[in-house]
Fold each of these.
Amino acid sequence: MIRSTDHILTSHAGSLPRTPELIAANAAREAGDDAAGYAELLADAVTGLVRRQVDLGIDVPGDGEFGKAMSSPIDYGAWWSYSFQRLGGLELRDGASWILKDVQSGPGDVRVTGFGRRRDRARFEEAYADPTSGVFHGGAPKPFPTAVAPLSYTGGDAVAQDVANLRTALDATGAQEGFVTSIAPGSAARMDNDFYGTDEEFVWALADALREEYVAIIDAGLVLQIDDPSLAENWDQITPEPALEDYLRFSEIRVEALNHALRGLPEDRIRYHLCWGSWHGPHTTDLPMADIVRTMLKVNAGAYSFEAANVRHEHEWRVWEDATLPEGRLILPGVVGHATNVVEHPELVADRIERFARLVGRENVVASTDCGLGGRIHHQIAWAKLETLVAGAELATKRLWA
């Protein structure tokens, strides 16, 4: 991965707003109308997206997760629901939903109960239930996957399309580097399991299957981003609140499985994204970054992306006063957020960047977003946030290289 050797580099966490044409095509495909010309439409959309990022000043662009279908402008789950179509051994069941999920997991009797039973939601039940509150309260249940047979990776054609589209776009725009996202085994494991005898066996089976996607992205000469909000986010889905020691043991099983899936792959081409879930809510029961940062650093990746701009986690830049970033690794702190329509001022963005640069070294910081912007805020606001990200990085560069 390229480093901030002479200026603060910029990137983002993955998802970007889809074009109206792509959303309409995805909706038609979801309804069973697999219209001709979709592949060309998708390829052109990715090239246009990368060109827009490069023209804006984003140093490390991505494909916006355009190959992970969204059929509506608002969609919080495409980053992981795409995997339902790329894994064999699953059965989609009508009426099932991750909101109703209840899975026995890990040591210490840790039980993940799903979004609908979050402790944050229980604390703010009235706000979550009120559609006018501005708090995300879930969508209508959709067919949900259950493992019913040995898991396998069936997404070879889809990931080949993803990497080909991004490679073409990078070549067309002259961008030096680009990334594609892929789900971590631990986050994928929040689906139901009627086949594997234990949760740990299920997670490791997912690791073996998803490795094929990881290898395909790396082999295409791209940067692989592992999306794994569950490492921090599962905490809020466990009722009652577990002992931290039990939760960390539960989480480290998932880290071990991920490292198994990444074995032999170059760490300097892998970045890892951690967050507390991108839904718009109070987040009062989020796990502190200080409790999870050392577990995150056990992931065999060359860079770590995490939320650092929203009002629940911005103060946690101080974690890096005590946590040691391993030699040669990077951080991609979020310095603009997905959880508010307010567009950050470039001066604030620069201040956020400088805090991290002074703790871990300016060359080890790439300015990024908290989470994906696509599907969470209006496209016009999303692009304004990327503009202020670039402007803030330019200000920070002037100060840090003065």
Amino acid sequence: MAHSMTAFTRQHRETPWGTLSLELRSVNQRYLEPHFRLPETLRNLEPHYREKLRKAVARGKIECHLRFEQDDTAKSLTINHTRLETLAQTMEAIQRRLPQSSMPSTLALLDYPGVTASEGVDNDALHAEALALFDHAMTDFLEGRAREGERLAELIRERLTGIRAQVADVRAHLPAVLERQRQLILERLEQAKAELDPARLEAEMALLAQKSDVAEELDRLETHVDEVERQLTQKGPVGRRLDFLMQELNREANTLSSKAVVTDTTRCAVELKVLIEQMREQIQNME
């Protein structure tokens, strides 16, 4: 199945410490060119992301942007009740021993080492969440490339149908085209009142027929069309192969144009070039 190089996905994941957001977007590129923007605390995930992309995607300029918005609750303080109880007992003992001494304030107690602690972020668990988010985003990203690729394939198949119709039209008119050209030459010679050498005339007619015969070009056009259709059903990247086939199709269309002896054949050759160019533009988006 053909895949497009253009796709976009945005995914979110809630964690106990905040929200992870990840964007993947890709555009046309001859080779695979990934770019990453990650928070410093998650920078070490880049090699993992890069490897997953390399295994799943062959071509395209891909931007990966990961954000982490930490919740205020993840910054909240917790009280060490055991430590606080020990401190209270110590203060009571001091009060009994030294009644004139003053007791510390509540804020002073909270500042005492070991009484409070920040919950913080579990980095290992957060990294695991970020990896899972990337896998989920990649699934949606690849599905988007596949859907877009199928739409491109449909557009290309429509043009292939048009090429087949043009080839069939030239084939149907080919005998009449050759006969018409023969009559034109005979008329011109008659008008010039030239003496006709039957043997020379037949040789000229044979040479003209050979130069005007485009059956071989039509056969190759149909062969290339068949190959394009086959490539559209293949697994893996097919863009470069299809681009090469567009060059071959265009070569045959140019030859057909150069051999055209009537306006109908010229018109068909021009239409073929238009259809081929339309396909080439779509194929530039294919992986």
